[in-house]
Amino acid sequence: MLEMRPDCERCGADLPPSQGGAFICSLESTYCAECADELDETCPDCGGELLDRPTRMGRVLKANPASTQPRFRG
Predict the structure, then answer these.
(1) Residue 38: what are its φ and ψ, rounded to 5°?
(2) For residue 27, how many other CB atoms are within 10 A of its CB?
(3) What does pTM read for this prediction?
(4) Which CATH number fits domain 1-73: 3.30.420, 3.30.40, 3.30.300, 3.30.160?
(5) Percent of the chain at pLDDT above 70?
(6) A Pfam family name for this chain (predicted)?
């Protein structure tokens, strides 16, 4: 199951699990749409492709909460 990280690892933008606009690689590094675009949709950590992260809503989100640990590296 995806960890659903709460923020962009590059700029710190909030990325709620129930909203689109987050991009992840296969290792779950997470970036906002602007940073993913600036990175040419390539993860700087692993070199993999950044893809749209799916959303998680309603009872599924309640039963499987998103991470609250920030990942922004500053």
Answers:
(1) -65, -30
(2) 10
(3) 0.90
(4) 3.30.40
(5) 99
(6) DUF1272
Q: Are 50 and 31 in contact (CB under 8 A)?
A: yes
Residue whose token pair is 């700087």: 44
DSSP letter string, 36-52: HHHTTTB-TTT-PBPEE
> What's the rounded mean pLDDT across residues 66-73?
89
Three-class secondary structure of residue 68 per DSSP: coil
Nearest to 24 by CA among 2, 66, 11: 2
State the residue for tokens 């675009």: 37
Amino acid of residue 58? G
Q: How far is CA 11 from the centre of its chain?
A: 12
